[in-house]
Amino acid sequence: MAAPQPAPGRCAYFVERKKRFCKMIPAPGRRFCGEHGQQEEENGRKRIPCPLDPKHTVYEDQLQKHLKKCNSREKPKPVYFVQDINAGLKDVAEIPEKQVSISSLSKEELENLIIKLKKTSNGLELHLEEQILSHQALQEALNDPKNGESAFKHLKQQASILGNMEKLHLLGPGRCFVEFGAGRGKLSHWVDIALQNVENVQFLLVERATTRFKVDGKHKRRDSVFERLQVDIQHLCLNKVPILEKKKLPVVGIGKHLCGAATDLALRCLVESYTTCCDGESEEPAPKRSRNDKTEVAPNSSANTESNKDDCKPVAGIVIALCCHHKCDWTHYVGREFFKSVGLGPVEFHYFQRMSSWATCGMRETTTKASTSDEREDQTNITEEHEHTFSKTESDSDTLQGILTVEERKEIGCLCKRLIDHGRIEYLQQRGYKAALQYYTESAVSLENVLLTAVPSPSWIPEPTT
Fold first, then answer.
1. d(C-alpha 428, C-alpha 426), whole Å
2. What values do phi and psi take at 450, rounded to 5?
3. What's the CA gap between 180 and 253, in Å, rounded?
4. What's the sign of the alpha-carbon dihedral 390, 392, 398, 401?
5. How high is the pLDDT of residue 300?
6. Rounded Cα–Cα distance for residues 128 and 145 (Å)
7. Chain centre to alpha carbon of residue 380
8. 457 φ, ψ to 5°?
9. Residue 14: its H or E element
10. How many angstroms separate the CA atoms of 200 and 214, rounded?
11. Distance between CA atoms of 216 and 268, rounded to whole angstroms?
C-alpha cells in the first residue's frame, strides 16, 4: 500500500496526534507552513516554542517582536479586577493538606464517614419541593420541531429558570442582570426576550474564557445593554464595573449550571464583595423590600433615604442552577461556618464533595443490564454540559463494591450535595436573604436539577458587629 501523501498545495508535515497531514497552505515554493517550517532549512533560521504558550512556535530571531503581540501575553487588568476579592479563606493554616482518595480509605473509615454524613443530615430539612415552571417567552422555541432533543432539554431548563424568576418578581424594569458563567449567553438572551417591552435593563455576562458563537449581538436592536466581563469571578468587583457605577441599578444574579466553587465565588461576589466595594468602612447594610407598581422585590430605595447607602443598591435576587459539587473547594466554600457548627471540617468536606459525584456520575449497573438509549443520552448530556471528570477508582473501587449498592451510592451522593447546598442557604440567611432550594426540572432532563433562589428578607435586621 502506498504511503499517504499530503493534499496538493498543503503542508507536508504529518500531525501524528491527528493521524493526518497539516491542512495549512505553505508559502509559494515551500513544503511546510510557517508553523512547521522548522522541518526544512531556511537560511539558518530556527523556530522555537513560544515561551508564553508552547503550543505554537515562532522564529527565534523574531521572538521579542512576537511576545508583544502574542495572544497568550498577559493583558492589562480591567478596572473591575480586584485580586482574590471573592476568594474566601485567607488563613493558610486552615487550608487542608492534600487528602487521600476515597478508594484509598478502608471499609471502616468509609463507613464512619457515611455514618457522620447521615447523622448530620438527620437534623436538617433537606427535602426539596418541585418548582418546575415555564415561561411564555420560550413557548415558541419549545414547540419548534427543528430543535433536537438536546436543545429541547436546555430550553426546558431555561424556561423553568425564567418561570421561577417571574414567581419571585425579579423580571421587571430597572434591573441589572448579572449572568455568571455565561458561556454563549443564552440565559440572558431569554431573559431579554421576556423583557422585550421593558425599559432600563442591563446585562453583564461574566465569563473568564473566550467564547465563540455568542448570542449577545442579537440584542443590539433594543435599549437593553449587553456587556461581557472576561474575568474570573474570583477577582470580580461588581461595583467597579463602569455601567453599574453609572446607573447603580439593583442587581439580579443568575446562572445556569454554575459549576462547583464558581457558585460560592458568585454568592460571595454578590452578597459580600459587592457591598464591601460600595461601603468600604461599614458592614453590609440590611436589604429591605419596598413595593413599587409591580410589587417586585426592590432594593432599599425609600424616598426618605438620604444617607450614602442610597448610592449602594442591594442585590434584588439570586437565581442559580447548581451543579458539579465535586468541583467545590473548601477555600472558596461559603458554608464553612455551617460545617464547623455541626462538627465537620475541611477533611470531611473533601470526602463529601468527592462522594457527591455518586449522585450523577456513571454509577450504573452495567454488568447486569445494558443502559437504555435514554439513559445513555442523558449521561451524554450531563458529560457535555458539566465536564464530569472522575477516575474509575473514585466511583467503582473494590471498597465501594464491598459495602454499597448502586442505589445506596446514589443516595449518599445526593445527601452530600444537599449538605453542601444547605451551607450555602445558611450563609445567605445569615446575610439577610430568604433563600431556598427546589427541583426546577425533571431528572430525565438534567441530573443536576436543583435551583438556588434568594431574595432579600423583608424584615431582616443585621446583627450588631463587635
1. 5
2. -110, 135
3. 7
4. positive
5. 41
6. 33
7. 19
8. -65, 140
9. strand 14-15
10. 22
11. 26
**Cell representation of residue 189:** 438572551
**Cα separations in angstroms, 289 against 147, 162, 250, 456, 459:** 40, 21, 12, 7, 8
pLDDT at 197: 82
Cell triple for residue 284?
Answer: 453590609
Q: Which residues of 192-203 are buried (b: 16+ CB within 10 A; e: fewer)?
A: bbbbeebeebbb
In the chain, % of residues over pLDDT 70: 76
Q: With contact defined as beta carbons under 8 Å apart, do 460 and 297 qualify?
A: no
Over residues 77-124, the pLDDT tens digits come to 999 999 999 998 776 666 666 677 888 888 899 999 999 999 999 978
- Using CA atoms, how far residue 261 sits from 35, 268, 317, in Å, is 38, 11, 20
Strands 251-259 and 20-21: unpaired
DSSP 167-222: HTT-SSSSEEEEEET-TT-HHHHHHHHHTTT--SEEEEEE-SS--SS-SGGGGTTS
Taking every pair of Cα atoms in the chain, the longest distance, rounded to a whole number of angstroms, is 87
Residue count of the chain, please give it.
Answer: 466
Tell me what pLDDT residue 330 has. Answer: 93
> Could you tell me the pLDDT band of residue 270, with boundaries at 50, 70 and 90?
very high
Find the range with the poorest average confidence among 191-195, 264-268, 299-303, 432-436.
Answer: 299-303
Q: What is the pTM of this model?
A: 0.76
Strands (DSSP E) along 216-335, which ranges? 225-229, 251-259, 315-323
